[in-house]
Queue: 4 jobs
Job 1
Amino acid sequence: MESATGQRASVRGWLQDLWLVAIYDDVPDDEVRRWWNCKETDVLDVLVDVAPGFRLGSIVTADGDPPSPTQRVSSLMFLHGTCPEDFEPDAQASYVMPLLDAGLRAALLAAFAPRLGDHPLMTAEPVDTLAAFLDEHHGARLLTHTPTEAVEVLLGPDVG
């Protein structure tokens, strides 16, 4: 984005921690729908707070969503949770907590692998530590969670 003087404007975003949590409890469909739409539910707010979790790293929400392992995992989980018919053929609801099976494990590890062009502001844990968490919780339902307050950050002129 350029200003009237031809200089590139700095992009601002919101930085916070991103976690992956494993849920073993049954959760009503309407609570899962609320989670994906606004992240505020009576049932899941409590379950997520006590669920086994893995801190993926930091994520920035900004125009253009800068590339990073955490951003790719967040996007992947959102797609799996909000378009289950594309990933879980037997899904009965329009919103789900994605099932951690071999296919989702492989997709998460591929998404989390560092890539050239990842934004340096968004840190990520080592891929092998994510693999260990996924192996430990195979069969659970997964959600992403951002427990920290978002902090406004300046990303610079080159976001993506």
Note: DSSP finds five helices and four strands in the chain.
Job 2
Amino acid sequence: MPSITSQYLARYRRLGAGEGADDPLPVTGAQRRFVLVRSLDPVGRPDLVPMFFAFPRGTVDPARLTAAADRLAVLHPVLRARPAVVRGTPVLLPQQPAVPLTRVHPAPGEDTTSALRRALADWTPQGPPIRMFLAQDEADGGEEVLAVVLDHAACDGQSLARLVEELEAAYAEGPAATGPGPGEAAAELASYREAVLLQLEAEDRASSPAAMSYWGERLRAAREQAPRPRADRPVAGELPSSAVELRLSSAVPGVPFPDLLDACRAAARTLYGAGHVVPIGYPWGGRPPGAAPVLGCFLNTVVFPAATGQTSDADPTASAWWDDLDRADTPFDAVVHAARAAGSGWTGRLDGLLTVDDATRRPLLRLGGVTGREIHIDGRSVRGPFAVSVTQGTELHLRMVWDRAVLDDDTAERAFTALADAVREPAGTPA
């Protein structure tokens, strides 16, 4: 039976798309998932990846920054393309390059972070996949905050690092600098198309009958446990999400990934009770062999079935995780299909998410010789019940955010305590 990926490739080829600058571009399995999630959302809300940088007030030159971002959108097709469905086939449609920079003015009683939170909540589904917002609090003459925000279908972690580096370089060149020529833009377009097609070929190979059988058996008992979002959303003035974080000093460079999965298992046990197999997702992957390091979204979402009745034990988790990684290229929608075909009641919703970053690779934006200070803006809407982010470096930074329409604060904070305790135990990380 043809795989989901091979069926997608066949439909894409029937569109007759060539290699012209305006022809539809194929999408990776990761992008396909984001397009599907967006289409199922009642208001077409995309998943957003924001970066927030605080600068001394007056640092950012809006005209210079806009010109720099526009030059990047000319070069990188994914920064000027918009998700669409053409004859039932998800694609990216290239548009004219334009990266808007919106000045955000706090309303009376608002601070800068609240104003930016409001601006992101008002993100219209139609529009460029990359947008920028500049906010400053009139009552605070010290700082202004720049938000560089991307549709997740246009980026992954590797893309963010390259984007920040190139945006910084283009800003340094000034607004009068010439953009990439037609030949350079055409070469980048060809590299992007080739990278996506190589990725789809890898995903097709990873959707073999053996891989589908593996994922079906692996996820047969999985089923989401989080309740659906409450009809009584948080009261007026209450943020839709909350977060808690902890920094731990560590004698080791980082915590092994299986230990982090077990820590998420401990959190899920607190949130959903014992005796369940809870689906928790994490991003994994990279550019396929032989592909250029193009901007885009190439990270698959791999599913870890967290059995909440088990005690935290790194060995079984590590062994199963290594087996999972051998099949990590199987695209998410194919994995859901395999689980359903094996008799699982799992619908594809994830009860938790885990992301891990290397602190040495986190991009910091430098404009006009000034390095921006990265900040977090809490309270934004989140897609899943809870999400854990771990930043590893000279210290361990644990952070958990949750949807208040699904989880109450007290229970979520107890889950974070269970997660932190599980991380401390194998890593020996004193607070």
Note: Residues 182-205 form the longest helix (24 residues).
Job 3
Amino acid sequence: MHLARLPASVYRALIRREVITTFHNRFVQIFAVVAWAGSIAVAALSGRPEAVPYGLLLLFLYLVPLFGLLVGVSAAHEERDERAFL
């Protein structure tokens, strides 16, 4: 079956499932809190306003790959439980 011929309800169900799974993932919640707290800390602790973008860049260059790795491991772990249904 070609993917373009699937009904729109299948795509909606797939997107809804992925969004719900993502928001229930504890790594996403922790990433949001760490990114928010880190951004506030960078803004509060930087000596000059010109240093804020550089500090945020360094923060997110560290957090985004870490987040990607943790979400990938979590997704692989969750798929292991669903293998019996496939």
Note: Helices lie at 8-24, 26-45, 52-82.
Job 4
Amino acid sequence: MPLGTPEGPTQSQWTLNAVSVLRVGEYPVPFEIKALPDNPDADGVYEIIQRFIDLIDASADFQMSHATRTYTHIQRITPTA
């Protein structure tokens, strides 16, 4: 079966993880933040996510531990002639 041209990325999921500098006892307070735009693959979403990461990173009260984008690629398969 012929494979079509890959389409994607699609269905992006954006997740940011940060921790507080202040501690409760011995432990910081962890945060997991999910960005939930109506269209996560729209132009401009990445730039807004990056600004939010930079905002958290610039804070003296919180530290970014990591941020991720997960997504899929779709490749259609068509019947052979």
Note: The beta strands are 7-24, 27-35, 62-74.
